Amino acid sequence: MDDPLSLSFAALADPTRRAILARLSSGEATVMELVAPFDMKQPSISKHLKVLEHAGLISRRREAQMRPCKLEPAPLRDVSRWIEAYRHLWDDSFDQLDAYLRELQATPSKE
Amino acid sequence: MDDPLSLSFAALADPTRRAILARLSSGEATVMELVAPFDMKQPSISKHLKVLEHAGLISRRREAQMRPCKLEPAPLRDVSRWIEAYRHLWDDSFDQLDAYLRELQATPSKE
DNA sequence: TCTTTATATAGCCAATAGGATATATATCCG
DNA sequence: CGGATATATATCCTATTGGCTATATAAAGA
């Protein structure tokens, strides 16, 4: 499908693309800089970048002959929001916090 | 690829499968119960369930002729952990939240 | 202008995905 | 045993994915 969340998850379902994001999390990089660490040809990386861009996970600008890539966090935030709805399923401290808030509500004037 | 994280992301990259997980988050369900809300045939849902099972996101047991499905949160936790590494990119209050969580962890109520 | 560098695009190919239908298997019940 | 119900599997089909090579485009620099 092509809804934003599906596009994001699909883009993240590839280790090369996740590695690219990891690299970009420490700053912008050109295509050639992103090609370097991989045993892969430049057009393949360009294809991956296209997928990431289409999912909104990166943006590109022009600088001389280069097209530096920049990580765009908004889709990651949306993915995070989606998954947070399930946090109570695995996070013990979630239940603790929940119980704590419940307790607060039950005894409003104490503390 | 077939590393666990890629399998999870790929499994989540389909709205039907995410809807199945949402349904299972409120309890077990049989295959027919999962088929019902969709305009899709049973074998297609079974295929989706296979993908989810292969990613470890659900487990199945046998009960009479039925195979009730149950949500397994571990892979979601791993996905959450992966994405949390990027939280600082979009969350302004990341530092505050971080401090708060650190404080929570320091409370001797558990652990 | 001509060459070099950086990147994108086109086209090829094998594998996979996600739908369908038809059929097999497993279990319950009369 | 035999039929009904629940689910899985086999097969088909089309579209997409992810790699490759070859080539086009864009800008820089001699």
What does this structure look like?
Two copies of one chain form a homodimer. In chain A, α1 (4-12) packs antiparallel against α4 and α1 crosses α5. Chain A has helices at residues 4-12, 15-24, 31-35, 42-54, 74-84, 92-106, and strands spanning 58-60, 69-71. Chain A has a two-stranded antiparallel sheet. Helices cover 57% and strands 5% of the residues of chain A. The interface between A and B is medium-sized, with 34 and 33 residues. Chain B binds a DNA duplex (30 and 30 nucleotides) through residues 10, 14, 16, 30-32, 40-44, 46-48, 50-51, 62, 64-67.
Could you outline the blueprint of secondary structure elements for this entry?
The structure is a homodimer of 111-residue chains.
Chain A lengths: L3 H9 L2 H10 L6 H5 L6 H13 L3 E3 L8 E3 L2 H11 L7 H15 L5
Antiparallel strand pairs in A: 1-2
Helix pairs in contact in A: 1-4, 1-5
Chain B binds a DNA duplex (30 and 30 nucleotides) through helix 4.
Short characterization:
The first copy, chain A, is mainly alpha-helical and 111 residues long. Helices cover 57% and strands 5% of the residues of chain A.
Strand content of chain A: 5-15%
Low-pLDDT stretches of chain A are: none
**Structural class estimated from helices and strands of chain A:** mainly alpha
Integer-rounded radius of gyration of chain A: 20 Å
Mean pLDDT of chain A: 90
| Largest protein interface, residues of each chain | A-B, 34 and 33 residues
Query: Which of globular, elongated, flat, extended, rod-shaped describes the shape of chain A?
Result: elongated
Major β-sheet profile of chain A: 2 strands, antiparallel
Strand order of the largest sheet of chain A: 1-2
Number of helices of chain A: 6
The CA-CA distance between the termini of chain A, in Å, is: 50 Å
Total beta-strand segments of chain A: 2
Query: How would you spell out the order of helices and strands of chain A?
Result: HHHHEEHH
Quaternary organization: homodimer
Amount of helix of chain A: 55-70%
